[in-house]
Amino acid sequence: MPAAPRLLATLLDTFFPRRCALCGVFDTWACDSCLRTACTPRIEPWNRPFGASRISQSSKLISLGLYHEPLLAHLMDLYKFHNARDIGDTLGTLLALGTRQFIQQHYSTAKPIILIPIPLHRKRIRERGFNQNARIAHALFMALGVAQAQYRPDLLQRTRYTTHQTTVATKDRAANIAGAFALHPDTDRTSVITGSHILLIDDIATTGATLNEATQVIMQQHPASIDYITALRSSAQTDLQE
Ligand SMILES: [Zn+2]
Questions:
Q1: Which residues are found with C-beta within 5 Å of the ion, ligand 1?
Q2: In the chain, how many domains are there?
């Protein structure tokens, strides 16, 4: 590690020593035992309420737990807003278990499987220091151990800076994210999408507006399927209440 990040890591460990958010054990943000309790990994139908623009009746969402769950909400806050980047490795590794099971049950072994993280705008990466979706996706890919899988953060690009979706009213989120993505301009590169199984990876799914918008763009290259992986999800009940 270069000197500056190492100094920052040392300072963080001094002032914010790693402790499990639930049981307080040291040297971890969340211990294995508490994570097992907090995570309820699920593979469920992608039923976000985006109506007419819904791509496929058969798409699925793979996720670890609800974002209201205290340990997971705390981890996501540390991860996104306090630079605890290694939490992304934990989340990705946990997601690999459910993803491997999903692939075995649903995908043709003859087709490539392309893992695409939701990209951030350059300005957002400067603000946060890293793309939290890409870190989760890469850790997931490394833990997955599936021969026909590829990690391809280069295929989808963020072309527009947008306000944080969480600060936008639910009904306005689709408009806020509209036109924010594009495929890489090199069609030779993006042709790998055609006929492949696509796994789109985001940190949190609430209304599904972001994943839906990215889906519209990826569909231009005619994939065999698109499914979704997020660390946290809202419940259908929550969507109705928002
Ligand atoms: Zn614990």
A1: 20, 22-23, 31, 34
A2: 2
Statement to judge: residues 100 and 208 lie in one domain: yes
Q: Is the same domain home to 8 and 57?
A: no
- Kindly state whether residues 82 and 183 are assigned to the same domain: yes
Q: What is the CATH number of the domain that holds 79?
A: 3.40.50
Ligand 1 centroid, distance to 45 Cα (angstroms): 31
Q: Measured between alpha carbons, how far is 5 from 240 in angstroms, rounded to an integer?
A: 43
Tell me, in angstroms, the distance from the centre of ligand 1 to residue 44's CA: 27
Q: For residues 72, 77, 80 and 85, what is the CA-based torsion angle, rounded to 10 degrees?
A: -70
- Quick one: which of 203, 212, 189, 199 has its CA closest to 232? 203
- The residue segments making up the domain with residue 24 are 1-38
Are 181 and 231 members of one domain? yes
Q: Which pLDDT tens digit goes with each residue over 13-61?
A: 666 778 898 898 998 888 888 888 888 788 988 876 444 344 556 889 9
CA of 172 from ligand 1 middle (Å) equals 38
Q: What is the residue whose two structure tokens read 């943000």?
A: 29
223 closest CA partner among 114, 103, 60: 114
Distance, CA 14 to ligand 1 centroid (Å)? Answer: 20
Same domain, 26 and 104: no
Note the pLDDT tens digit of each residue in 164-188: 887 888 888 888 888 999 999 999 9
Band (pLDDT 50/70/90 cuts) for residue 201 is very high
